[in-house]
Amino acid sequence: MITYDARNFRSIEYMKYLPEQLKHEIDIVSKVLPFKVNNYVTDYLIDWDNYETDPMYILTFPNKKMLRDHDYAQVEEALKKKLSGTELYKIVNSVRLSLNPHPANQLTNVPTYLDEPLEGVQHKYKDIVLFFPSQGQTCHANCTFCFRWPQFVKELDLQFARKEIDGLIDYIRSNDDIHEILVTGGDPMIMSPASLKKYIDALIEAKIPHVQSIRFGSKSLTYWPFTFIPEINEEAEAMLDIFRKIVDSGLHLSFMGHFNHPKELTTEAVQLAIKNIRNTGAEIRTQAPMLKHINDSSDVWRDLWTQQVQLGLIPYYMFVERETGPYDYFSVPLAEVYKIYQNAIKFSSSLGKTVTGPVMSASPGKVQIMGVIENPANQQKYFLMQFVRHRDVNKTFKPFFRQYDEKATWFDQLKKVESTEILV
Ligand SMILES: *Cc1c(COP(=O)(O)O)cnc(C)c1O
Ligand code: SF4
């Protein structure tokens, strides 16, 4: 019998653990970066004896180093002066806008149907649409590194969200290249089963012959596993029923679980939640970015994949952190990301080798670093790369070179290579 205190009170009670100065810093940084945590994370995941280096603490609590010094000072000053709401907002907003809130042109992939833009839908790759139900545009807790952070800041107004699914269904029906629907957010698992069910029932009832799979992108297994534990949460059975219904309808259901650190997989609650989801017939695939201070270590990734395989999860993507938000704090140079990946995968069980990585979700598509190669003729190093996803499917899975750059942290910083150079 599992006994968790599962009141999701989201209070600031955890603050009692923190020294005054740190509370002050959190207060300032969270004016810019949205901050939210719940008592499952604070009581069961964070190691308060070593919180300053604890990955779960860093993952959820903002800290001073996540803002540039002058930005931090500016917000601190504004608070000290007790500036009015609008004046404070002006400052906070200018800092936010300097944090590249729209990476990889997220706004340009909104499709149109009957000449109307389909709000709450993104269609970048032919075979799969992203659907952002309006009630799922928040999360149980907020990750400090999150690239969706502008969605949690209402003023930035680039929330993809839609209330009605009918337009989406018509769009999918009229486009037989679409085989998959990825329901995402925020976190769609924050929705009540009743809200989610409306969308899913409509999709199932539409019986669109070319739709084969539904995916849910979610961090709820880490942040609120009770969503899937009927003994603790009275709505959980209804949620699991939705999963069963999708599977029974003949659609493939893949739960895309987001796990940054093996610690997230260690509690009794998460393990039971995983078991319950798998018992519905859904698969759980996993993905996460590599982040400095949290998981920039081969051992961590090896443990992560090993534990995932043990629990029946399928490693899927290892990402490079996007250039947005507190990016300077979390970014790891591509050369190092690759080394960490290589040393992790080399010593992992083959069952963990289902992971594709390291991958950058860039404007043209998802680009994978396949290796670092030295040309003996000129002693130059190069990255060998390929697109595993591209807007133009003909451009995928064609290896190509980019100049090696020890410091580069994103694809667009890598210089092109003259073809003659690699033949010398
Ligand atoms: C990553 C991504 C997908 C899903 O891609 P898969 O490679 O099938 O997992 C779909 N749409 C967008 C915009 C994405 O970034
Ligand atoms: S759970 Fe996902 S969408 Fe929500 S804050 Fe974390 S990274 Fe962002």
Q: What's the short story on this structure?
A:
With 424 residues, the protein is of the alpha/beta class. Strands 3-4-5-6-7-8-9-10-11-12-13 form an 11-stranded mixed sheet. A two-stranded antiparallel sheet has the order 1-2.
Largest sheet composition: 11 strands, mixed
Question: With helices defined by DSSP (H or I, 4 residues minimum), what is the helix count?
Answer: 13
Oligomer: single chain
Alpha-carbon distance between the termini? 67 Å
Order of helices and strands: HHHHHEEEEHEHEHHEHEHEHHEEEE
Radius of gyration, rounded? 22 Å
Instruction: Please state the overall shape, judged from the principal axes of the Cα atoms.
Output: globular
> Percent of residues in helical segments?
25-40%
Average pLDDT confidence is 91
Cofactors, ions, other ligands: pyridoxal-5'-phosphate, iron/sulfur cluster
What are the segments in which pLDDT stays under 50 over at least 5 consecutive residues? none
The number of distinct β-strands equals 13
Overall SS class: alpha/beta
Q: Give the amount of beta strand, in percent.
A: 15-25%
Strand order of the largest sheet: 3-4-5-6-7-8-9-10-11-12-13
